[in-house]
């Protein structure tokens, strides 16, 4: 019974991946997906934190401290999960799939870009609740871009989102925020 459920889940994941990956889009949309993916690399987070500090935003030091702790936990945790699971990337399992960008490492599950994007979105939304919806939408688009670009399955993205959101909720709680 469990094997059947797992097989059903894997088949659903692959079908959803193919639906997103094989969708034909025009060149400007491909460029947008690449830019969205790049926005989850990390330098954007540092730049925004720096701008908040430079602008003298009163809560910027707290945001920076909580963010530093959160990412110091999230990055090794996602890498531990990734190397423990060792799920091959879609283009390594299916000959008709090619990656449209170079992935940063060998394994697929979970999506580190998505985890980081949702962690950042969750933390910034705690300080600026009015930005929550656009921040979560951006993080979701980062995840979608990773599927479209052929480097993650939808379940990799879902797991990354849960990891980022979970840490983005728990770490501020632990810090008394």
Brief overview:
With 177 residues, the chain is an all-alpha fold. It has one domain (2-174): Phosphatidic acid phosphatase type 2/haloperoxidase (Vanadium-containing Chloroperoxidase, domain 1), CATH 1.20.144.10. 73% of the residues lie in helices and 0% in strands.
Beta content: under 5%
How many helix segments?
Answer: 8
Separation, N- and C-terminal Cα atoms: 43 Å
Return the CATH class.
Answer: Mainly Alpha
Query: Which secondary-structure class do the elements indicate?
Result: mainly alpha
Q: Rounded to an integer, what's the Rg over CA atoms?
A: 17 Å
CATH topology: Vanadium-containing Chloroperoxidase, domain 1
As residue ranges, the low-confidence spans are none
CATH superfamily name? Phosphatidic acid phosphatase type 2/haloperoxidase
Number of individual domains: 1
Order of helices and strands: HHHHHHHH
Q: Tell how many strands the DSSP assignment holds.
A: 0
User: What multimeric state do the chains show?
Assistant: single chain
Mean pLDDT, as a whole number? 89
CATH architecture label name:
Up-down Bundle
Main sheet?
none
- The dominant shape is globular
The portion of residues assigned to helices is over 70%
């Amino acid at each position: 019974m469990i094997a059947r459920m797992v097989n059903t889940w894997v088949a659903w994941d692959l079908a959803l991946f193919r639906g997103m990956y094989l969708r034909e889009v025009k060149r400007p949309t491909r460029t947008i997906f690449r830019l969205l993916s790049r926005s989850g690399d990390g330098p954007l987070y540092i730049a925004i934190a720096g701008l908040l500090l430079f602008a003298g935003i009163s809560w910027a030091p707290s945001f920076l401290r909580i963010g530093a702790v959160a990412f110091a936990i999230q990055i090794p945790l996602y890498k531990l999960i990734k190397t423990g699971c060792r799920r091959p990337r879609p283009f390594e399992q299916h000959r008709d799939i090619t990656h449209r960008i170079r992935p940063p490492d060998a394994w697929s599950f979970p999506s580190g870009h998505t985890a980081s994007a949702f962690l950042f979105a969750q933390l910034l939304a705690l300080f600026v609740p009015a930005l929550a919806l656009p921040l979560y939408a951006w993080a979701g688009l980062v995840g979608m871009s990773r599927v479209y670009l052929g480097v993650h399955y939808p379940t990799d993205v879902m797991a990354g989102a849960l990891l980022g959101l979970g840490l983005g909720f728990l770490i501020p709680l632990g810090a008394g925020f």
